[in-house]
Design goal:
It holds the Pfam family Voltage_CLC. It is found in: Membrane. This protein is mainly alpha-helical and 433 residues long. Helices cover 67% and strands 0% of the residues.
Length: 433
């Protein structure tokens, strides 16, 4: 007779609990993701509105009061030089000096100390209002990541730190572009290469919620729009394929010229040995470039690009080419002399100018196709983000019929840029690859 099994000891370990289902694991992340996304959008909105108010004072009220032309060459040189001096003095005075050298930072980096954030946001407002050719994306994303990481680790210490970085980045990017798709595309390239539990969309769930919250907050309050009022594209046609390949490749080459000039310009400004002097000199160069290229080549470029697109036949091919070159040069100078700012929006302006140049040279090339392909090529070279470059190029024209040609144009452009130097330096001043 088989003996009875002994009764379980009171000290015997409990049987292991089954792992939580993905839904039960992801659902608690929804609320913090939404909160982070909304706060990120509000910070971006606050900085943008403050910069716009200061811009009106600096470029309208002040020159009118002095009897100086708002965008005269003299005023552009004076204003940009003064902006460089002001930013340099603020960076010298604020805690943390605005964070690391902006030439060494990307769009999504490790969290900085929260004490650096106020000074970083202040110099960002000054640069945006003063006409510097940089966008708000890098410093706003860095500030939001710092705040989200600090608060998240304080109130939810059990959550991984990487979660707060992803939520803040997604919320900010969603607000910047007015759609969570941009955030999902940017983060997907990083998440796809990282090991982690669950399916890919499990890892994307919380960032997508944050991006959605950020995008909806910005859309409901500010109604941002990236679409350009270009003539509708009627293709595709066989002849457009060659145009798309050539224009995207030309955009990539223009972007690569800026990429290879990046470390050279950084060495020149570093040789000045004093941030205030480097920023003042950089502001002077930016003012001279503005006088050369015209006032449309100033600022981050989002509003100015709509002026170009509103009259695609209003400038000659040479003028469009000149604005594209000046804008890329201004981007390189601004990002290497010490101004805090992003590189996506100025690159879009350069791409739009290059695309309209192609249309002006060959009238048969549809302006919508030319613009989208040129933006694609420039962004591929500057950001090395394939999905976001393709997305931005398509959004600019708002026509799904260009997508097949854009996908085809991505191939030669990517072959030109892959494996080459990036528009970001390491701590020794060498280009990343």
């Amino acid at each position: 007779m088989t003996p009875a099994s002994p009764a379980p000891s009171p000290t015997s370990p409990h049987p292991p609990q089954p792992p939580a289902t993905p839904a039960r694991r992801l659902l608690p992340l929804a609320v913090p993701a939404i909160v982070v996304g909304v706060v990120c959008a509000l910070i971006l909105l606050g900085v943008s509105l403050l910069a716009e108010q200061l811009q009106d004072v600096l470029w309208e009220s002040l020159p009118d009061a002095l009897g100086v032309g708002r965008f005269s060459s003299v005023w552009m040189v004076v204003m940009l030089t003064a902006t460089g001096l002001a930013v340099g003095l603020v960076l010298r005075a604020v805690p943390g000096h605005g964070g690391p050298d902006p030439a060494t930072t990307g769009l999504v980096d490790a969290p900085m100390r929260p004490g650096i954030v106020p000074g970083l946001l202040l110099v960002t407002v000054l640069a945006l209002a003063g006409g510097v050719s940089l966008g708000p994306e890098n410093p706003i994303t860095a500030a939001n990541i710092a705040l989200a990481f600090w608060l998240g680790r304080r109130f939810a210490p059990g959550a991984p730190g990487e979660l707060w970085v992803a939520l803040a980045a997604a919320g900010t990017i969603g607000a910047l572009f007015g759609t969570p798709v941009a955030a999902a595309l940017i983060l997907s390239e990083a998440l796809a290469s990282q090991p982690g539990p669950g399916a890919f969309w499990d890892r994307l769930f919380a960032p997508l919620a944050a991006g959605t919250a950020g995008a909806l907050t910005m859309s409901l309050i500010a109604e941002p729009s990236f679409g350009l009022s270009l003539p509708a594209y009627t293709g595709p046609h066989w002849g457009d394929l060659l145009s798309a390949l050539l224009i995207a490749s030309a955009g990539a080459l223009l972007g690569l010229l800026a990429v290879y000039a990046f470390p050279v310009a950084h060495r020149v400004f570093t040789a000045l040995r004093h941030p205030v002097l480097a920023l003042t000199a950089g502001g002077l160069v930016l003012g001279l470039l503005g006088a050369l290229g015209g006032h449309l080549t100033l600022f981050k470029g989002l509003d100015e690009v709509k002026t170009l697109a509103g009259d695609p036949d209003g400038w000659s091919a040479g003028e469009f080419a000149g604005m594209a070159i000046v804008k890329m040069a201004a981007l390189v100078i601004a990002a290497t002399c010490g101004f805090r700012g992003g590189r996506i929006f100025p690159s879009v302006f350069a791409g739009v100018s290059l695309g309209l140049c192609a249309h002006a040279l060959v009238d048969a090339v549809p302006p919508s196709l030319a613009v989208s392909c040129a933006v694609l090529g420039v962004l591929l070279a500057v950001t090395r983000q394939g999905w976001v470059s393709l997305f931005t190029a398509a959004v600019m024209v708002g026509d799904a019929s260009v997508l097949p040609l854009l996908c085809a144009a991505t191939l030669p452009a990517w072959l030109l840029v892959t494996g080459r130097a990036q528009m970001q330096l390491d701590t020794e001043g060498k280009s990343l690859r």
